[in-house]
Amino acid sequence: MDGQGGVGVACIMRFMDGRPASEDVVARVAAVIAKTQKIPPETVTIDQSFEELKIDSLDGINIVFALEEEFGIEIPDEPALKIRSVREMVEGIEKLLAVRNP
Amino acid sequence: MSARRVAVTGIGVVSAFGDSFGEFWTGVATGVSAIRPMTLTPPGTVKFLNAAEAAAFNPLRYFDEKEAGFLDRFAQFAVVAAREAIAASGLKIGAALGRHCAIVTGSSAGGQITKDANFKSFYAGNGRVSPLTIPLVMDNAGASRISREFGITGPTYTVSTACSSANHAIGQAFWMVRSGAVEMAIAGGSEAPFAPGFLKAWEAMRVVSPDTCRPFSLGRRGLILGEGAGMLVLEPLEAARSRGEQIWGEIAGFGMSSDAHHLTQPLAEGAALAMRNALEDAGIAAEAVGYINAHGTGTQANDATEAEAIRAVFGTHARRVAVSSTKSMHGHALGAAGALEAAATLAALRGGMIPPTANFVEPDPACGLDVVPNHARPAEFEAAMSNSFAFGGLNAVLVFRRP
Predict the structure, then answer these.
(1) In angstroms, rounded to a whole number, what is the distance separating the alpha carbons of residues B319 and B57?
(2) Measured between CA atoms, how close is B190 to chain A, in angstroms?
């Protein structure tokens, strides 16, 4: 996968229950965002909002589409439209992955 | 308000000759055909081999990578041609003028390439279609982008009448400027038909030539598909004169008609009615027309029927008026055709040089007419006409005059 080394993977994020998010998921989400937005991978970090990354609603839908492809999951419409930050995106995908691979 | 006269002060073109009006006119005026072996479509996809592709067009010269991905090729063409036309007009479109500016574009097939690629992937079992498909495919995507890029907030829309789309678009914009409904307009058409599924559909119609496009000639075997865009900047003649801008010509009249006849077979009476309506709208006698840029697709049916219609409208003057089909050089660009041909007609009018009908072999008695075979001809004339006739029997004719 391209760009893995450059994205802010060193920043370990934790969920509400204190469980650390998978670095792999963070890196893959960041890489997909970078690729879809045509921006350098190193500019995408876990703490950014979509607004900071200039991701508008159409971009958001486009990113969700690409992430479904990347992770082989289906992201439901309502949460997909609500997500407004990289962190929320990673969190949502972790949940969907957990349901798929409990 | 009394009707105003309407000038064309900017022209932009993307075509098989290159990404500029200058390259287009140099090619057309020297009678060089841009029809070449197809390169954009995998060999063997269709039986016909040649087309007038804008093969050198590189979207990344005009858009960053992300922007390019949000615009189908037909919309990219429209934007690039509009940028050239607006720059050439010298107009600075601020918020005040932008509110009183119209954009009317024509396209027959819209985002055909995007549609084709996404549906192909879906039907092949991928199960998914990109969320960008809808906004890329819509026929008005080019018009909307031009509006956003230049801050134009006036009436903006797209006309889709198959091969008459651009003439209908230019005619609508012309009438809006003439009536005072708007203070300026950007009008034209764009098309990017080189999508495999769409080409198969053209092949199935059996109207595409296996060799080249020879309008009005014996041995003609059909049309040759082309692509690109033409955009014109229209403004009141007096405003253009007071700005001292270069005026390419005046749009003097616009006429429309419908054959009410057949899905694909043309009807001379319908074409003639649109030509008469355009002359009447212009207040110009048929004898003042020195050049007709014909629809001239190179099909058996169109060329004979169009020639019959020209004889019906022009009477004895039909023996004198020069008629040529520049589709023999830039191909049939469908919804952009009228815009490319308006550019050629305006340049002919201003430059005193009639572009030829290229690839001409010998006269077809079923057509007749002086079709300016193979070599451009210097000629001064006061008025010119440009014809577009569409499948579905929808006809749109523009009349131009030297200002």
Answers:
(1) 40
(2) 24
Between CA B334 and CA B75 the distance in angstroms is: 14
Look up residue B369 and give its amino acid. Answer: L
pTM attached to this predicted model: 0.94
Report how far residue B27's alpha carbon sits from residue B36's, in angstroms, rounded to the nearest whole number: 14
* B381 Cβ contact partners less than 8 Å away, ≥ 6 residues apart: B289, B290, B291, B349, B352, B402
C-alpha span between A85 and A74 (Å, rounded): 19
The C-alpha atoms of residue B6 and residue B173 are separated, in whole angstroms, by 10
Chain B residue numbers touching A58 (CB-CB < 8 A): 70, 131-132, 135
Domains detected in chain A: 23-100 (1.10.1200.10)
Closest listed residue to residue B288, CA positions, set B371, B184, B162, B401:
B401
User: Which uninterrupted H or E stretch holds A47?
Assistant: none
B352-371 pLDDT, tens per residue? 999 999 999 999 999 999 99
CB contacts, 8 Å: A61 with chain B: 131
For the question of residue A56 being annotated catalytic, the response is yes
**Token output for B35:** 């029809």
Residues B182-233 have pLDDT tens digits of 999 999 999 999 999 999 999 999 999 999 999 999 999 999 999 999 999 9
- Tokens 């876990």: give the residue: A46
Where do the domains of chain B lie? 6-243, 254-401
Question: What average pLDDT score do residues B41-54 get?
Answer: 96
CB B376 within 8 A of CB B31: yes
Residue A7: phi, psi to the nearest 5? -80, 160
**How long, in residues, is chain A?**
102
Q: State the Cα–Cα distance between residues B139 and A34, nearest whole angstrom.
A: 29
Rounded to the nearest 5 percent, the helix, strand and coil shares of chain B are 40, 25, 35
Give the SS3 label for residue B143: helix
Q: Is there a common fold for B6-243 and B254-401?
A: yes
Cβ pair B233, B85 in contact under 8 A: yes
Class of domain B6-243: alpha beta
| Amino acid identity at B397 | V
Distance (Å, whole) CA B357 – CA B373: 5
pLDDT, position B3? 80
Q: Between A37, A38, A65, which is nearest B131 by CB?
A: A65
Going B8 to B13 to B16 to B18, the CA torsion angle's sign is positive
- The domain made up of B254-401 is a member of CATH 3.40.47.10: yes
CA distances from B214 to A90, B100, B207, B308 (A): 60, 43, 13, 18
Question: CB within 8 A of B385, min separation 6: which ones?
Answer: B275, B278, B279, B289, B291, B292, B293, B345, B397, B398, B399, B400
Whether B135 and chain A come into contact, CB under 8 Å, resolves to yes
